[in-house]
Amino acid sequence: MLRYGLVRLGQGVATLAAIAVVTFALMHAVPGGPFEARGGDRASAGLVEAQRAYYGIDAPVPAQFGRWASHVVRGDLGPSFARPGRTVAAVIGDGLLPSTVVALYAFALAVGIGVPLGVVAAARAGGRGDAAILGVTTVLAAVPAFVIAFALLLVGAVWLGWFEVRLGRDVTDLALLAKALPPAVALAAPSTALLARLTRAAMIEALASDYVRTARAKGLGTGAVTLRHALRNALLPVVTVAGPLLATLVTGSIVVELIFGMPGVGAAFVAAILQRDYGVIMGVTLFYAATIVVANAVIDLIVPVLDPRIARP
What we know:
It is a single chain. This protein is mainly alpha-helical. The protein folds into 2 domains: 19-72, no CATH class; 90-306, Orthogonal Bundle (MetI-like fold), CATH 1.10.3720.10. It contains 14 helices and no strands. α5 (88-123) crosses α9. The longest helix has 36 residues, at 88-123.
């Protein structure tokens, strides 16, 4: 297990390094820079060059990357070019709470609704309930999260007045839990459909297995057979997907945060792209990539524990 953990750690570091190289190269391949974007047509050439020299982005791209990487390995993500006096870590930290709450909210909704729906559909496979659940989940899987977000804004904010159109006011108070619900619902809808359909397929396969037929032959009730025997084995593929799904919800909240006006990491990332804020772009990209790498590694370690038939690494 220790050897496997070290191997996964090395793979994760290599993945993050490759993502950093590609992102850094693409970022500098785009015409313009952070100070030209801030100053617009009024920015004098001398002022722009002075700022570029001060931040060290007048050097060749490989030298810039080497300097940036040497700071990152020491835990320093550098300054934000578009926010004078602010560090990249501070910018990410400011948006971390709203993004985390929305992502965890969405994950809880997806698992708490999707898995039971899949179990009910499998228990009624071929019936009207199964057909209804399949129909609803097909629609949810086909409709993008941003479309659902606009629909929730139209109905909940404009027509019914249940919440504000822009939810970004006072997001650090206790009202954040209530304010995060609409974007979490929009973000969770496609994932709920995915988990429901995955659980249904796994449950149908488990209910048709020999050990379930043996349990029924022993006189166990339908509920005990479904929940104690079939569901336990059917949850393995669901758990396998759950880790990457959580990471996807964290990284996929960018558009939803913008629509609802949540000042999260995704909103800061989009603003950094528009402002050519190199430091924030690289910092948020690494944050998202590390979230995905860690989630996949954790799931790889958990799966053998849940199913002893899978060889421990």
